[in-house]
Design a protein that fits this description.
Elements: H1 16-24, E1 27-31, E2 36-38, E3 46-60, E4 66-72, E5 77-78, E6 93-106, H2 107-115, H3 118-144, H4 147-162, E7 166-168, H5 173-179, H6 184-196, E8 200-203, E9 206-209, H7 212-218
Antiparallel strand pairs: 1-6, 2-6, 3-4, 3-5, 3-6, 7-9, 8-9
Amino acid sequence: MNIDIRSAHLFSSLNDHQVTQVLESSHISTLKDGESLFETGDDANRFFLVIGGQIKLFRVSSNGDQKIIDIIQPGNTFAEALMFMEHPIYPVSAEALGPARIISFDSKRFLHILSESIEVCFRIMGTMSQRLRGLIKEIDDLTLQSATTRMCAMLLRRMDEVGMSRFTLPAAKGVLAARLSMKPETFSRILQNLSSKRLLKLKGSEIEIIDASLLRSLAHVESIYGLEPEMPCRVTSSL
């Protein structure tokens, strides 16, 4: 396997021998678009690293609505925290968004490696703490910020990821709308509003950020004058 797993934060502190041990119990899988990796309630004996494509994590409500919890990009791991549970089960379902490649790892084997190195344990605890802080911030964003604020933050993250002001949205608009806890029509209206205010250019799923500075400032406020389509009565002033 010619893949350096140490590029992922979870494995960055492992030495060569430990990496070899981890890879001995690993397995590469190729998934088709929409193919399921695991379902909610399945036994969580393995965790995963995305090496190509995207993986969607989601839950289905009692009325059949799908809530997207996360979209895992290449180079990122997921489901690793479950290895520390006594009887781990997957709390979400996972499926491929388009063709995808993943590496799965045996959780018990990885725990055994951790038990032999206190230093690695502490480093991984630090990595998971950072991810937890990120999840707490995300909950705050979804519950306290406006839909436009969440959209601006998502666009800025994407721009930072690709290192360019022109980029393609990382997933279908309907998927991104669900990820941001908004309706698809709201998602489209906000993009159109941002475009009409000359903050960005929009062509299908292609985005070009025109005014990153203003977009960045809008990502840190909770009321967007002239831009919030869900509050039409406030659309009275121009930027």
